[in-house]
């Protein structure tokens, strides 16, 4: 995909997440602190609790950093993960996110929780990270790389800003290799791209950069469970948020969630926690 096409995809994603409908949906239905895939212990568990479990699971897999250590969260959304990391590890977290609307919520919630001295929030996208080389000890990302039309470029940028020996831990909705394209078509239409990433593709990017594979924890069932849970919540609470989210948006979202659930249930989609390390 050309850089121009990649920029168009970034613009589409930014415009979508900056919209009032999307902001209210993700903030009021999806959990508010996080807008990422959760790890569920029970089918009806609150979205926020399952999302927090994903953060805790990922955080347990990265080493303790010194007090002066720095972590970058790319595609940070509302900054819920950054606040957990800053609060529990006491380290500085930089959030990078393309949605100015989400970033304003992030700054407000971070200040309200007394963490503004440990977290800074930058407008921008992860295909062009606005940071110097070797700036961070760890890079973190949740369910955001799928929105990039230049995913290898994202890996290259992460490699550039990582210090030697630093790690990249992330989750992402992905496609399975060799699946029927017709199963993916409705999902791809939602993200305005011809394909999604995959474990093999991401392993390939990492290998080209000389990274070590630390762990590949595949959990495709989490994707189906999470989108099913969000759909349940939207159907249950649709009337409650009718004055904040347009009816057209709600119906489109329900349709889109059903496409994700169907594709995932038929084995076309993947999700998991991927962890790589840059050589020291």
What do these coordinates show?
By secondary structure, the protein is α/β, with parallel strands linked by helices. The chain has a single domain, classed as Rossmann fold, CATH 3.40.50.150. The chain has ten helices and nine strands. The chain has helices at 3-18, 20-28, 47-59, 80-89, 100-112, 151-161, 181-191, 199-208, 220-237, 247-265; strands at 70-74, 92-97, 119-123, 136-142, 162-171, 174-175, 212-218, 269-270, 272-277. The strands form two sheets. It has a seven-stranded mixed β-sheet with strand order 3-2-1-4-5-9-7, sandwiched between helices. Strands 6-8 form a two-stranded antiparallel ribbon. β1 (70-74), α4 and β2 form a beta-alpha-beta unit. α3 crosses α4 (80-89). The protein is globular, with a radius of gyration of 18 Å. The relative contact order is 0.16.
Compose a concise summary of this entry.
By secondary structure, this protein is α/β, with parallel strands linked by helices. The protein has helices spanning 3-18, 20-28, 47-59, 80-89, 100-112, 151-161, 181-191, 199-208, 220-237, 247-265; strands spanning 70-74, 92-97, 119-123, 136-142, 162-171, 174-175, 212-218, 269-270, 272-277.
């Amino acid at each position: 995909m050309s850089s121009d096409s990649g920029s168009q995809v970034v613009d589409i994603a930014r415009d979508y997440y900056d919209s009032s409908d999307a902001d209210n949906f993700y903030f009021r239905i999806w959990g508010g602190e996080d807008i990422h895939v959760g790890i569920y212990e029970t089918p009806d568990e609150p979205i926020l609790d399952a999302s927090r479990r994903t953060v805790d699971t990922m955080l347990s897999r990265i080493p303790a950093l010194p007090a002066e250590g720095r972590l970058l969260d790319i595609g940070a959304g509302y900054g819920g993960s950054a606040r957990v990391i800053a609060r529990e590890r006491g380290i500085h977290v930089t959030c990078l996110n393309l949605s100015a609307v989400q970033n304003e919520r992030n700054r407000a919630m971070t200040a309200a929780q007394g963490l503004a001295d440990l977290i800074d929030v930058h407008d921008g996208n992860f295909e062009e990270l606005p940071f110097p080389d070797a700036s961070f000890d760890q890079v973190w990302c949740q369910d955001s790389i799928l929105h990039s039309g230049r995913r290898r470029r994202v890996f290259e940028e992460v490699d550039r800003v990582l210090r030697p020996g630093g790690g990249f831990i992330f989750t992402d909705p992905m496609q399975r290799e060799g699946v029927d394209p017709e199963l993916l078509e409705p999902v791809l239409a939602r993200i305005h791209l011809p394909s999604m990433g995959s474990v093999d593709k991401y392993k390939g990017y990492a290998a080209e950069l000389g990274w070590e594979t630390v762990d590949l924890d595949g959990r495709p069932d989490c994707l189906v469970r999470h989108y099913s849970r969000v759909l349940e919540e939207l159907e249950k609470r649709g009337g409650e948020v009718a004055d904040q989210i347009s009816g057209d948006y709600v119906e489109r979202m329900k349709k889109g969630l059903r496409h994700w659930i169907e594709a995932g249930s038929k084995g076309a989609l993947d999700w998991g926690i991927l962890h790589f390390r840059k050589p020291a």
